[in-house]
Amino acid sequence: MNVDAEQRLSLVRNRMGDARQALADARLLLDRGSLRGTANRTYYAMFYAVSALALARGEAFKTHAGLISFFQKEYVATGLLGREHGRALQKAFDDRSEADYEDLLDIETGQVETRWREAEDFLGIIDARLRLEFELQP
After folding, report:
1. CB within 8 Å of 127: residues ≥ 6 apart
2. For the whole model, what pTM was predicted?
3. For 30-38, which contacts have Cβ atoms below 8 Å and span 24 or more sequence positions?
4. How would you classify residue 123: left for phi > 0, otherwise alpha for psi between -120 and 50, otherwise beta?
5. CATH number of the domain bearing residue 125
6. Over the stretch 41-84, which tens digit does the pLDDT of each residue have?
7. Is pLDDT at 2 greater than 90 in this prediction?
8. What is the span of the domain harbouring residue 96?
9. Total domain count for the chain?
């Protein structure tokens, strides 16, 4: 990634803004009973947040698997973040994949609500990590 530090931090802030917007959109969809839409936007809230972490380190990934692997390796395996955060991201990805690609949805409202709450916590953890590692203010 060939951008200066100021541009990179601007990109990180934008990506966290995308994460917050996706989480807000997921809440609206959940309140309207749209399980597929909620699963999608909940995962993308987490995806954008992890992408912000990667961007802050000067990393960018072309695949979801690459970004998730980065998160697991650099944050979960090292103990910087808990294993529950790695599991939450993976479950959100799995739910999103099912919601987006399966004809028959096997996801229930309670499951989607749980993922949304996990994503809300996840964004808070990522915000804190960005402040700690990169002195990034919201």
Report:
1. 16, 138
2. 0.94
3. 30/112, 30/113, 30/116, 33/109, 35/99, 35/105, 35/107, 35/108, 35/109, 35/112, 36/99, 36/100, 36/105, 37/99, 38/112, 38/115, 38/116
4. alpha
5. 1.20.120.330
6. 999 999 999 999 999 999 999 999 999 999 999 999 999 999 99
7. no
8. 5-134
9. 1
